[in-house]
Backbone:
């Protein structure tokens, strides 16, 4: 077989312009003379499958190393799918374990609850002995933060208190009010377990940074999509950024799927005959990754699926995330009660 060329790639390209433009951009980035060592993180999920197909089509000089971060809470179906991908593309997807296992991280630092941002702010408040008080922001600053004369400001859990007091601006997604009734719930039901978002850091983020630094990768490729939402997607504004820092210098980040909508993904899948893992085709899941993560809005459904198809994993996640599951259920029930009360009050006012 001859050398890969961009013309050959575009001859068999989908008519979807987003896909065509994306392939041209991916070809340019991956084959740039600026990069000799490229890292690509594969998860075994549907976004990752599309990204992998793009990378293998565009990497004419085989510069990309593929890795998978084994969090310890991965579906067996995902592991089987990774083997299928290795055979399909004749590549190696090298597994790397978490720097700190998730069970140990959750036991030491706390369990994830609701979202990464919410967990981060709750964790900061817990570290400062917060009593979940409904008081003005200025009062809480004086109570839980220290005044720094040199910087002429309070230091400590200031950002977390702004979240708690809805001080990030009107209708800000960062305010606690973005999660309806959460503040009212926590005032009445203070968490009696530690909450944290740090398990993601040790299981994936730090592992990636360690690899980039140790092996001198110059380009880091990940499968983030803006349309997917969540903290990871909203923190970026484009598919590419330069000058990430590590001890060996700088590296760039590239997100090939960043502008793909769900319809573009579906077009790509159908045109290039992409086969997803059994997590989607058999289990009926809409996401993969850490099994039944409490950050997932459908973790209850994931638990049902995991119990049916992978019972050992079901037992493991309940042991690790059990407190968070119960707290989330309690919060959701609280929301139902409050919504019902509000509806009754509005009906009385109308009548």
Residues:
């Amino acid at each position: 077989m001859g050398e890969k060329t961009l013309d050959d790639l575009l001859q068999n390209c989908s008519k979807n312009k987003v896909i065509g433009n994306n392939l041209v951009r991916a070809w340019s980035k991956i084959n740039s003379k600026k990069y000799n060592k490229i890292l690509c993180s594969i998860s075994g999920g549907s976004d990752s499958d599309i990204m992998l197909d793009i990378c293998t089509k565009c990497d004419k000089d085989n510069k990309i190393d593929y890795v998978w971060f084994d969090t310890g809470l991965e579906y067996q179906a995902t592991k089987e799918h990774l083997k299928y991908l290795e055979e399909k593309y004749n590549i190696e997807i090298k597994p790397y374990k978490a720097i700190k296992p998730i069970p140990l991280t959750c036991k030491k630092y706390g369990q994830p609850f609701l979202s990464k941002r919410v967990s981060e702010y709750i964790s900061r408040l817990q570290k400062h002995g917060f009593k979940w008080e409904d008081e003005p922001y200025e009062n809480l600053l004086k109570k839980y933060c220290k005044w720094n004369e040199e910087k002429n400001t309070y230091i400590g859990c200031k950002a977390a208190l702004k979240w708690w007091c809805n001080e990030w601006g009107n209708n800000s997604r960062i305010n606690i009010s973005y999660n309806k009734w959460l503040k009212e719930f926590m005032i009445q039901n203070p968490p009696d377990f530690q909450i944290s978002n740090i398990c993601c850091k040790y299981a994936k983020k730090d592992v990636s940074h360690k690899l980039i630094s140790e092996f001198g990768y110059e380009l880091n490729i990940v499968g983030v999509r803006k349309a997917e939402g969540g903290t990871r997607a909203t923190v970026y504004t484009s598919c590419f950024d330069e000058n990430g820092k590590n001890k060996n210098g700088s590296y760039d980040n590239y997100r090939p799927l960043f502008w793909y909508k769900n319809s573009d993904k579906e077009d790509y899948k159908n045109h290039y005959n992409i086969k997803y893992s059994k997590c989607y085709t058999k289990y009926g899941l809409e996401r993969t990754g850490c099994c039944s993560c409490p950050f997932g809005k459908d973790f209850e459904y994931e638990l049902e699926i995991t119990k049916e198809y992978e019972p050992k994993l079901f037992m493991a996640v309940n042991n690790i995330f059990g407190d968070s599951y119960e707290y989330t259920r309690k919060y959701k029930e609280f929301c139902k009660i409050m919504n019902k009360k509000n509806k009754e009050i509005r009906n009385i006012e109308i009548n």
Notes: The radius of gyration is 23 Å. The beta strands are 38-41, 64-70, 93-97, 146-148, 153-155, 219-221, 240-246, 249-254. The chain has a mean pLDDT of 92.
